[in-house]
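Reminder to self: keep the SMILES exactly as supplied, no canonicalising. Ligand is zinc ion.
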Amino acid sequence: MTQSISVKCKLIVPSNLGGEVDRTLKGFADACNQILEVAKRENCWNTTKLHHKVYKPVREATGLKANHVCQAIRRVIGNAKAVKQIHKFRPTSISLDVRTFVYKEETQSVGVTLMCGRVEFKLSIGGYQIALLRGQTPTSATLNKTRRGDYFINFVVDIPTQPTGKTPKVIGVDLGRRDIATTSTGKCWSGKQIQSVRDRYSQVRANVQSKRTRNSRRLLRRLSGRERRFQKWLNHNISQQLVQDTKQINAALAFEDLTNIRESLNQKPRSKTERRRTNNWAFYQLRLFVEYKANIAGVQVVFVPPAYTSQTCSRCGHIHPVQGKSYRNGKFFKCGHCGFEHDSDINAAFNIAALGACVSSPQSPGMSCQLLGQMSLFEMIQICG
Ligand SMILES: [Zn+2]
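Structure tokens returned for the bound complex:
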């Protein structure tokens, strides 16, 4: 089994070649826009059929190489399938295939076919990328130009995964209530530092927005990009550590399944925090990163139903009998039935771990799941599914 990942490498583009790359980027975007026009006009979203309609005229109009046009057709169809609303293509990215690029490991360089022909670029990469690309012959890539004018190439490589062994040990991860992530082993990534960074950005944003000049709009765009990159960097770090720790003690990871929460819990009013947890792309990205890293490392990831994980006592399985009331009080959890006291997020992580153990190996005799005293496992899984 393998896992596809994308390896981002900076291209060193000599000043005399920048114009040539830009010309090809422009040609590719023009081709995509022309193809999109035809696809919309004739309502044709099949790669082969569209190819017959557009290949010749687009190639003549843009002067692109044959395979660039083929990739442009794929890009248009792929985009239309991925997002309902189709925007105009901008000259910032081009898809490459085995005939339009080659990665050369010995020289840490890449040969790319531009409109003027094959050009070789040095890669500016570190040990991390070199290790991922070792022995690889990627057959798919995209070349991108950033707003700042830097060029990057994203190689798609397949990394072999390790088989996941069955394990009774499960680490539960509670996401995004008070902190970003809290584990049942007591580890926690605090939201405070992140919030202060966020606040700083939003303060700058508020100042900028009040001025409303062209310059400030540009600054605004740059800030949101920086914030996004910060979050991505953070998610890479958290997911890396989570998977590493779990691998070390040969355990599995359990998360709440927040993807179906909208459908399954739409009867109950949800708090502001709950809405933030389900609608936030940052948590979605974190789970995505964990999943692919765990896949490569051979760590099993299970998803459990999110209902009651924060209200249930992880020791005795009790939930507050009065509807709308909870034993949880902000940071603290104090069970009214058995007196159990703990950090409320860690209590939730305990519950997620216990549920995860049930889901990952239902026949396991050791796990009686006190949590399920309130609800059968079958019901729990139904909510989840
Ligand atoms: Zn209790």
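Points to follow up:
Residues 261-268, 362-385 have pLDDT under 50 and may be disordered.
The first helix runs from residue 15 to 41.
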